[in-house]
Specification:
Blueprint: H1 3-12, E1 17-22, E2 34-39, H2 43-55, E3 60-63, E4 69-71, E5 76-82, E6 90-93, E7 97-101, H3 106-115, E8 118-119, H4 131-137, E9 140-141, E10 144-145, E11 150-157, E12 162-166, E13 172-173, E14 176-177, E15 183-191, E16 193-194, H5 197-214, H6 235-241, E17 248-249, E18 252-254, E19 262-264, H7 270-288, E20 297-299, H8 303-310
The protein binds flavin-adenine dinucleotide.
Length: 315
């Protein structure tokens, strides 16, 4: 990216902009080359930032805390906007309703919601990430999805215009929402149900136990790599049946604890993860005639690699 553009962006919020910033520092995988410009904006910085990006056709990517993201080793020659350190407002209202800004961490949200005996989010305990990432991805676990409580959302378009969507205007399905890809989620309203504090506690405990017993949480990862092909057919089961557990490329490994997880055992590169993703897709297709679809999102890859990793399901 040209220096004068970087300077322009730095002027918006000098202490919130990092240049040539390794994305490995901002993904739970601990993988990824540099972003030309990485920024943690407050709400008031966004319109100015979007204007510069729009006027100069600079590629821009919005992320939460990078827990569902694989960034290429080459990085991203554009602006990465992260909401992991801003947009932290969470306001509770009457009737089990609350408004949550995009940068609120899901763990904090689940804790605060549970404290007020509001049910509906128990299964999400232990899911990393921000509210923004969770809602766009329709994060879920153990029978609970964040969209179950969704009422409405405020977004910004790339031209800086604010828009609202109510729940009838957004469709959610398994790890998917119809929020337009070129809009930034700023905040959302939710309505939960009054729950029983003992049941909420037990459900959270149960979800935590299941997570600890089935997931390789000691290693860096991005959680599940592929979506399950159906409710009855887990991607991890299919990969396991192709004998790929413990398969390695460099420091990346298909986990022996959960075959749908690729773990970083230290210095894994994105190219290592890409090799394992391709291998798993190839073997599952060969053995079961099923095309695995990526759950994780990709940043900084060329079109050919994206197509090879995603098949018909370009993410
Ligand atoms: C150990 C581990 C366990 C996990 N377990 C689960 C699980 O049980 N269930 C589950 O569903 N997921 C799970 N995940 C995946 C991940 O935690 C979720 O998808 C999470 O909701 C992603 O949030 P994030 O803020 O990190 O998003 P990011 O990874 O930063 O981004 C994900 C996507 O959301 C978009 N996005 C983020 N914020 C915004 C915004 N404000 N506006 C517009 N777009 C935005 C990004 O562009 C990207 O496409 C797990 C991951 C890990 C590492």
């Amino acid at each position: 990216m040209k220096k004068f553009l970087l300077n322009k962006i730095q002027n918006i919020a000098p202490d919130r902009v990092l240049l040539n910033e390794p994305m490995s520092k901002h993904t739970t995988f601990g993988i990824g080359g540099p972003a030309a410009c990485f920024i943690y904006p407050e709400r008031e910085h966004l319109k100015q930032l979007l204007k510069i990006a729009d006027n100069h056709s600079i590629p821009i990517f919005f992320m939460g805390s990078g827990s569902n993201l694989l960034v290429s080793d080459e990085g991203f020659d554009g602006i990465v906007v992260s909401f992991s350190k801003s947009l932290k407002k969470l306001v509770f209202r009457k009737g089990n309703c609350f408004t949550c800004e995009s940068g609120v961490m899901l763990g904090h949200l689940v804790k605060e919601v549970s404290k007020r005996d509001i049910s509906g989010m128990e299964g999400l305990v232990g899911v990393p990430g921000t509210l923004g990432g969770a809602l766009v991805m329709n994060a879920g676990a153990y029978g609970k999805e964040i969209s179950n409580l969704f009422e409405s959302a405020t977004v910004l378009t790339l031209q800086g215009d604010e828009k609202n969507y109510n729940k009838n205007e957004i469709n959610f399905s398994y790890r998917y929402s119809t929020f337009p890809k070129d809009e930034i989620l700023i905040e959302a309203d939710f309505k939960g149900n009054k729950g029983n504090s003992e049941n909420i506690k037990l459900e959270k405990l149960d979800a935590s136990k299941k997570r600890k017993s089935s997931q390789p949480l000691k290693f860096r990862s991005a959680g599940s790599i592929f979506k399950n092909p159906s409710d009855l057919m887990a991607a991890g089961y299919l990969i396991d049946k192709t004998n790929l557990k413990s398969e390695k490329s460099g420091d990346a490994e298909i986990s022996k604890k959960h075959a749908n997880w690729i773990i970083n055992k230290g210095g894994a590169r994105a190219s290592d993860v890409v090799k394992l993703i391709k291998l798993a897709r190839f073997k599952v297709m060969n053995q079961f005639n099923i095309e695995l679809q990526l759950e994780i999102k990709l940043l900084g890859f060329d079109d050919k690699t994206i197509e090879e990793l995603s098949g018909n399901n370009i993410v």
